[in-house]
Write a structure and sequence with these properties.
- The chain folds into three domains: 90 residues, Jelly Rolls; 214 residues, Rossmann fold; 129 residues, Elongation Factor Tu (Ef-tu), domain 3 (Beta Barrel), CATH 2.40.30.330.
- The protein starts with 19 loop residues before the first strand and ends with a strand.
- It has 489 residues and is α+β, with helices and mostly antiparallel strands.
- It binds adenosine-5'-triphosphate.
Length: 489
């Protein structure tokens, strides 16, 4: 039994007769896939083992479910672990129950990632030294953008780089621009999080909880979150690019304010991008003042990008790293299930940190709810609309939100004038930082996300919503954005 929010939880341990031992030779990795309906319990019993740059504690039982990971032994004497598997009764899927696992000594990619980390750390040290000697001319640490094909190991490399940086007392900002994933936030958002602690490998996705979730083993992280509202960047590319630029402004100003973050720089993880997406890549490079692009194994992309950025190569380094032989195929079903688990964990916690979400009924009449628009729905009218940049000039500060006909906003968000069960049931809504009294469309576009609620039911006759909040308390009187991310409790 655990006190909600104070950890503890499932304390069952290994039964030695059921456990299997694995010896990982030095510089090799044990690769394994655990379906969502199976739980892998394991502990490192000798040596040092790490998952994507995060060192695992010795003799501490950990548990994982719904993952495709590797435990790497970074020292020559290797490491030893023991594991057992159990059924995950909370999940019903038609996946196979068996875990698959194997040992591999083909870890040249990992060695390159470590060398890349050491290179970045050298730049960080030079930045620190320079900033001590020249406090009037402060420099910034490396700002690294990782790009590559689907499933080429971008996310694993981003985790590895921030994990190792953290070990060396650096505090880079981890930026996630893949709205499919939800990094310290829910899917549908992009985020930036200063990493000042080890990642929590046991949490869904392997990052950790955010500050909304209270006391726990790892320091909760405080991300800056921008709402996009979809999993797929092509559903409203203009909104996606707009939110990237706004996140870039916030991240760069955070770098200005905090010397340890400024010295450490940024690591940016992205959705799969190719040369066809050059304008997105170009936007990211300029919005985050990227100075190093790391390409996952794609020679052609390296050459094409070097050509396109020819004029910038004095400030921008473009390098290629190999793809790990361990990267696993991840199908749509697995991704969807992981998204569901991320949402479940946001509200309910996990086996270590149980949370007490709060169910309540609220009156929907007085709420202001926006929804991101699908690009396909506005394609025909787009040509007649002014751009977001011309927004400020057009703005009428005194107009009523509900009656506002704001053309530049309609490219990104539309006001949900008739909330109903058909557009809100089983959906995730983002709570913005914007008070309901603020009717500025520009502020709506520029606002960050405070947290999320789940709408389980909208009662059409009564105009009431049954909602789940991550914590008890009065429902915030803030503007809401209904996302396309569905979830069935
Ligand atoms: N060395 C490894 N051993 C085992 N599994 C790995 C290894 N490296 C990566 N994986 C797994 O392979 C899958 C794909 O890797 P990852 O998510 O890092 O790729 P990605 O390029 O970010 O994918 P996407 O394009 O879908 O965002 C993930 O489940 C990841 O955990």
């Amino acid at each position: 039994m655990s006190i909600p929010g104070f950890g503890g939880g499932d304390t069952s341990t290994f039964r030695p007769e059921d456990s299997i031992q694995v010896e990982i030779p030095g510089f090799s990795e044990w690769r394994f896939e655990v379906p969502h309906k199976t739980i892998l319990k394991f502990k490192i019993i000798d040596g040092i083992g790490e998952i994507f740059g995060t060192e695992l504690p010795l003799n501490v039982e950990l548990q994982l479910t719904g993952v495709k990971y590797a435990i790497y032994a970074p020292l020559s004497n290797g490491c030893k672990l023991e594991y057992t598997t159990l059924q995950n009764k909370a999940v019903i899927t038609n996946e196979d129950e068996e875990i698959s696992e194997y040992l591999s000594n083909e870890t040249q990619a990992q060695t390159t990632y470590i060398n890349l980390h050491l290179g970045l750390e050298t730049i960080r040290q030079e930045t620190r030294d320079s900033n001590i000697l020249n406090p009037k001319d402060l420099k910034q640490g490396p700002k690294v953008l990782i790009i590559g094909n689907p499933g080429s190991g971008k996310t694993s490399l981003a985790k590895t780089l921030v994990g190792y940086a953290n070990k060396m007392d650096s505090r880079p900002i981890l930026v996630n621009l893949n709205p499919r994933d939800g990094v310290f936030c829910l899917p549908g958002s992009i985020s930036a999080t200063p990493i000042s602690d080890t990642l929590d490998v046991e949490s869904t996705n392997g990052y950790g909880f955010t500050t909304t979730t209270g006391s726990m083993n790892h320091n909760p992280k405080q991300p800056i979150i921008k709402n996009y509202g979809f999993s797929d960047i092509n559903q409203n590319l203009d909104l996606y690019k707009y939110q990237i630029s706004k996140l870039g402004v916030t991240v760069l100003s955070r770098l200005e304010e905090d010397l340890s973050i400024r010295n450490s720089g940024i690591v940016i993880d992205t959705p799969p991008l190719s040369i066809k997406d050059f304008t997105i890549i170009e936007n990211i490079v300029s919005d985050f003042e990227v100075d190093i692009i790391v390409i996952m194994g794609n020679e052609r992309l390296l050459i094409d990008l070097k050509k396109k950025f020819k004029h910038k190569l004095s400030q921008l380094q473009i390098i290629k790293v190999p793809i790990s032989g361990g990267v696993a195929e991840v199908d749509e079903g697995f991704i969807r299930r992981s998204q569901e688990e991320t949402i479940k964990e946001y509200f309910n916690g996990n086996h270590k940190t149980r949370l007490s979400p709060f169910k309540t009924d609220i009156d929907a009449k007085d709420l202001i709810i926006y929804k991101a628009v699908l690009a396909s729905d506005i394609a025909s009218t787009l040509a007649f609309l002014p751009s977001a940049d011309s927004y400020a000039a057009d703005e009428d500060e005194n107009s009523e939100v509900k009656s506002k006909t704001d053309d530049s906003l309609t490219k990104y968000y539309s006001l949900l004038t008739e909330p109903s069960s058909s557009n809100l049931d089983n959906s995730i809504m983002a709570i913005t930082q914007l008070p309901q009294t603020n009717n500025s469309g520009k502020d709506l576009l520029n606002t960050s996300i405070k947290g999320y609620v789940h709408v389980s039911k909208y009662e059409d006759e009564k105009h009431k919503m049954k909602i789940l909040l991550p914590f008890a308390g009065a429902f915030p009187k803030h503007v809401l954005i209904s996302t396309n991310i569905g979830f069935n409790e």
